[in-house]
Amino acid sequence: xxxxxxxxSKVLKxxxxxxxxxxxxxxxxxxxxxxxxxxxxxLENEFGVKFTIDEVVKIKNVGDIIEVLRxxxxxx
Length: 76
What we know:
By secondary structure, the protein is mainly α. The protein has one domain (about 1-70): ACP-like (Non-ribosomal Peptide Synthetase Peptidyl Carrier Protein, Chain A). Helix content is about 55%, strand content about 0%. It contains four helices and no strands. Helix 1 runs antiparallel to helix 2 (about 35-45). The N and C termini lie close together (about 5 Å).
C-alpha cells in the first residue's frame, strides 16, 4: 500500500500517514473532480493498467481503488 499512499499523498497533497481504506472525497478537501482525474492518470501510469469508465465511477474511497487494482492482479 506504500506506492498507493505515495501517489495519493502527492496528488491530494495530504500526509501518507492519514490515508486509510476509508479515505474518500468526503474526508479530503483536495479530492475534487480534477484531482480524481489526476489520481486515475497517476495510478494507470504507475501500475501499468487502464481503468474502464465503470471502474472510475465506482471508486468512492481508497478501499475501492485497492479493489480495482487487485482485479488487475496488483498486490497492494
